[in-house]
TrEMBL record:
SUPFAM superfamilies: Nucleotide cyclase. Gene3D superfamilies: 3.30.70.270. Pfam families: GGDEF. Keywords: Coiled coil, Membrane, Transmembrane, Transmembrane helix. This is diguanylate cyclase. It comes from Malikia spinosa. Its EC number is 2.7.7.65. It is an enzyme of class 2 (transferase). It comes from the Bacteria.
Length: 530
């Protein structure tokens, strides 16, 4: 390791207040050094701590002398001051770097071989794998989500950038433009991922901010690469850009954590930790430690390991949120479909009601009544049960409409049908046959019982006082069902009985005879008295 322009490792010379400190000498002078039990790793730890401690002393001493104006007779700082000031900064940074590396390689921890290039390759490979998984997922489900498509592109760009960085030694040159293109692609991929998160979490105002920041950061990085004489400034600028992006991602997750509290808080903590570590690397670089992006040192291994963990957590976390969002949308769609089905069922029930009932009186209409009569006729034939049909027609109803108006006529129909319902059983079927005619089907009822019901209805109608109209009477025809008789024949007989009631002076009840089978339904309706 280079420290202050000189090789520090075996010798480890540090200038502290004019004294030369030797790392090996200090290690050997330790009470348990050498043969008494201290190993090489423990010695390196002590050496690193020694670098940090005496580097801080040298840095502080040089800073104090510079501020107090201590100078030679020529008016400039002494060579010892400059050396102590510069090497002090490098001692602090190198000590921290060596401590991190020794921590990862400590014999008291699991022996895991860590390599920076392997970690970079893993970052690139896993980013591309995420992009491939999302592509296959969308193809299999045939469900295109804009957020997933944009996130897939972000992973593709970032993964390609990491692989370009990993391939640096393959080009055989220390400075290869592909490396800087890879760095730009990494940051662009992170920025695109941040924009996708912002849109997905419902914070679109972040997108123009990220776009503006990248429009500033990219030219600054390119200018640094073009103007700098070494890679050190480029690494500082690039690391700073990455730190800001991850800190912004942490702030975004924290700002929107209510959508998925546990997951977003964990993602925010990890993104913030990575952003903070990258910022710490920038600070170490500013202290004078020469930064090398792909060197196997403690800082790089720690950062790339943490970056790999963050990449996995962010990737799986985002996919889990997408799945959760999809399930929520699916549940909402199911609930909407259920509400729609309920509305359709209600509409169908309403249509069925309108198709089978009379809108004015609420009774069954003629079409539906005929179908129910046929069913009862079949049941009566099958079980040899009695069945009777009753028809009544309001007397002089045309005069009511002409004298009192159609609204009064409608009121008469409504009140008399309500009165008829009060005198019927639950199994009886009451329907409006047409105009002022009504029919009542009575299962398990013989002709004489039907005559009794008709007489009760006639008396109730006669006694009912209707406002603005007065009393309204009705004529009744009754007929019992004959086995295997057709509906037309049955209605013809009951119609003949009603005609007889009208001819007898109205407000009366007549029972159809079995022999009255003449086709009365075919004569003109106006021949029957109203």
């Amino acid at each position: 390791m280079r420290l202050g322009g000189a090789e520090v490792g075996d010798i480890g010379e540090l200038v502290s207040g004019g004294r030369v400190m030797h790392g090996k000498a200090r290690i050997a002078s330790h009470p348990v050094a050498g043969d008494e039990g201290i190993g090489l790793e423990q010695g390196r730890v002590l050496q690193s701590v020694d670098w940090i401690f005496h580097g801080k002393q040298a840095y502080t001493a040089g800073l104090i002398r510079a501020r107090t104006g201590a100078a030679t007779e020529a008016g400039s700082p002494t060579e010892n001051d400059n050396s102590g000031f510069s090497m002090g900064r490098r001692g602090i940074g190198s000590g921290f770097n060596q401590c991190i590396l020794l921590f990862l390689r400590s014999p008291y921890r699991a022996r895991i071989t860590m390599d920076t290039r392997t970690l970079i390759f893993s970052l690139g490979l896993f980013n591309l794998s995420f992009a491939l998984v999302v592509f296959v997922y969308q193809r299999c489900r045939k469900h295109d989500m804009p957020h997933l498509r944009a996130w897939q592109l972000a992973k593709l760009v970032a993964g390609s950038g990491y692989l370009l960085g990993w391939s640096r030694p393959l080009w055989g040159a220390e400075w290869v433009p592909w490396i800087y293109a890879g760095n730009l692609m990494q940051w662009l991929g992170i920025a695109m991922e941040l924009a996708v998160y912002a849109r997905f979490l419902g914070a679109p105002r972040w997108v123009p901010v990220v776009r503006a920041a990248m429009m500033v950061a990219v030219p600054v990085f390119i200018a640094t690469v073009w103007l700098a004489s070494s890679n050190h400034p480029m690494i500082l600028v690039g690391t700073g850009i990455a730190a800001l992006l991850y800190l912004a991602m942490s702030a975004l997750s924290l700002n929107q954590f209510r959508q998925s509290p546990q997951l977003l808080l964990m993602m925010s903590a990890l993104d913030g930790a990575l952003g903070g570590c990258l910022a710490l690397k920038v600070i170490i670089g500013l202290l004078g430690v020469e930064l090398v992006s792909y060197q196997n040192n403690g800082i790089n291994i720690g950062l790339y390991t943490l970056a790999f963990v963050v990449m996995c957590i962010n990737g799986f976390g985002f996919l889990l949120q997408v799945q959760q969002r999809f399930e929520q949308q699916l549940q909402q769609a199911k609930e909407a479909a259920e509400r729609l089905n309920q509305a359709l069922e209600s509409a169908n029930a309403q249509l069925s009601h309108m198709a089978t009932t009379d809108m004015l009186t609420g009774l069954w209409n003629r079409r539906h009544f005929e179908s129910m009569v046929r069913q009862e006729m079949a049941r009566a034939d099958r079980h040899e049960q009695a069945l009777s049909l009753l028809i009544f027609d309001l007397d002089h109803f045309k005069d009511i409409n002409d004298i009192h108006g159609h609204l009064a006529g409608d009121r008469v129909l409504v009140e008399l049908t309500a009165l008829a319902r009060q005198h019927t059983r639950g199994c009886d079927l009451l329907a409006r046959w047409g105009g002022e005619e009504f029919m009542l089907l009575m299962p398990d009822t013989g002709p004489q019982q039907a005559m009794t019901v008709a007489e009760k209805l006639r008396s109730a109608f006669e006694a009912q006082q209707i406002p603005q109209v007065g009393r309204v009477t009705a004529s009744f025809g009754v007929a019992g069902y004959l086995p295997n008789e057709s509906l037309d024949s049955w209605i013809s007989r009951i119609d003949a009985a009603l005609y007889q009631a009208k001819q007898a002076g109205r407000n009366s009840v007549r029972l159809a005879s079995v022999s009255a089978l003449r086709p009365v339904r075919h004569r003109p309706r106006e021949t029957r008295p109203s």
